[in-house]
Design brief:
Blueprint: E1 6-10, H1 19-22, E2 30-41, E3 44-55, E4 68-78, E5 86-97, E6 108-123, E7 129-144, E8 152-165, E9 168-171, E10 177-189, E11 192-193, E12 226-238, E13 244-254, E14 274-281, E15 286-294, E16 300-311, E17 314-323, E18 335-345, E19 350-359, E20 364-375, E21 379-388, E22 398-407, E23 413-414, E24 417-418
Antiparallel strand pairs: 1-2, 2-3, 3-4, 4-5, 5-6, 6-7, 7-8, 8-10, 8-11, 9-10, 10-12, 12-13, 13-14, 14-15, 15-16, 16-17, 17-18, 18-19, 19-20, 20-21, 21-22, 23-24
């Protein structure tokens, strides 16, 4: 680090689209290379990033996706004594470029966003926390190679929000602690200016992280508009024996619907889907996490369930995902998949592993694997068998067998197992 700046880079290049699969490397469908320069201080943030993307998907043409993306973000925070609270100032510069020179599908965009925000909180004697937020954002977009839009568009978006929280705790006779927090928020924003292409906010996730945001779009090219009301409830229980549970429920109501929220985002219409999220942590390394969206007919529009078990000899994790069909997001039908990954210590030297990815919608496996690992103070032997069932124009279904031997010339430690520090002929 120089003057508190940190340089980081991550470069990925392949000779052909099948390279990752051929050599059993992480199964990525896009390669992202990034160089960044970052400085983080107590009241300021500066970050400069340059990204390059290369697609390995058959359905994508590299010339038609933003392959070169640059971002500069500067944020400062002030605590004025006379005004109270916290003032945030931000400057964001963004640029993305397609190599194609065609109109519309070869569109390039440069943007500048200046943002000012004031936040202040009060806590009453009864424990009610009130949070006030108001601010304004100004955006300037330079649009190239898209005849549907003017070459330059300016937008100004004032906003304000008032939030109420009432955190409550109770300890029972058994020693368990309960936490309950009802939440309500009323917000307003007014997007003024011309329309711009939706290049960055095509996929929106509705979760606990943005339930109380004044705009749930991930980028500045789209912002929520009008009045909105949010209700929510957080609950948690902490048992003296060590296990704990937590849950969140919430929903958004708007004065007007936003056309750029897709059906499966859970935010289309004037009332959003009901957000449900929960987590359960038990003793002996068991953890369950779930998140889903419940539509107005009480049917799930999106669901994710993950379980982990890490205890002594066993390490197991699994995930289940269900997504509703959404042509806007590229899904002609419902998507349902399950992932399983596990390891088991047979004895201090031997470990077995297995993994499976199964497409429930198509009733077929995507990938499956089985492996054995032997390790002592002298040598490590890794044997694996992996089957890939999917195919594309550049990748055929394949079965890979791996056999690796490594010599251990110094101390080796794996989990709780420790081996002798040297290898000798008497081992």
């Amino acid at each position: 680090a120089v003057h508190d700046f940190k340089l980081a880079f991550d470069l990925k290049i392949v000779s052909d689209n099948a390279y990752l699969v051929d050599y059993d490397l992480p199964d990525l469908d896009r390669l992202q290379s990034e160089v960044s320069l970052t400085r983080v201080k107590r009241n300021s943030l500066v970050r400069l990033g340059l990204n390059h993307f290369k697609s390995l998907r058959d359905s994508e043409n590299d010339a038609l996706i933003p392959s070169l993306i640059g971002d500069l973000s500067i944020q400062r925070r002030f605590f004025p004594a006379g005004l109270g609270g916290e003032v945030r100032l931000g400057l964001d510069l963004h640029s993305h470029n397609r190599t194609s020179a065609l109109d519309i599908i070869g569109r390039d965009i440069d943007s500048i966003t200046v943002d000012m925000d004031w936040r202040r909180s009060w806590i009453s004697s009864a424990g009610l926390r009130t949070d006030w937020q108001m601010g304004i954002s100004s955006d300037i977009f330079d649009i190239h190679q898209d005849s549907r839009f003017p070459p330059q568009v300016t937008r100004n978006t004032p906003r304000a929000g008032l939030r109420f929280r009432l955190p409550m705790t109770r300890t029972t006779a058994s020693g368990a602690t309960h936490f309950l927090e009802p939440i309500a928020q009323l917000s307003w924003s007014d997007v003024g200016g011309g329309a711009v292409p939706n290049d960055q906010s095509g996929f929106v996730e509705f979760d606990q992280g943005n339930l109380l945001s004044l705009s749930r779009f991930p980028a500045h090219d789209r912002r929520e508009d009008g009045l909105a009301f949010v209700y929510g409830l957080n609950w948690a229980r902490f048992a003296p024996g060590g296990w704990q549970a937590s849950a969140t429920v919430g929903q958004v109501f708007r004065q007007t619907q936003h056309p750029d929220f897709t059906v499966s985002s859970g935010l289309s219409g004037t009332s959003s889907d009901i957000l449900l999220a929960g987590q359960l942590k038990l003793n002996k390394g068991v953890a369950l996490t779930a998140r889903g969206l419940l539509d107005d007919s009480f049917g799930l529009s999106k669901m994710e369930l993950r379980g982990d078990w890490d205890y002594k000899l066993v390490d197991f994790s699994g995930s289940y995902l269900w997504l509703r069909a959404d042509p806007v997001e590229g899904r002609a039908g419902n998507l349902s998949e399950i992932w399983l990954d596990s390891t088991y210590d047979l004895n201090p030297n031997w470990q077995a592993s297995a993994n499976l990815r199964y497409d429930i919608s198509d009733a077929r496996a995507t990938t499956a694997g089985l492996g054995f690992l032997y390790r002592n103070e002298c040598v490590t032997v890794d044997i694996s068998l992996n089957r890939r069932y999917t195919s594309s124009t550049s990748i055929e279904p394949s079965t890979d067998f791996g056999f690796t031997i490594s010599l251990n010339g110094f101390a080796v430690e794996s989990g709780s197992k420790e081996y002798r520090q040297t290898c000798n002929s008497n081992s």
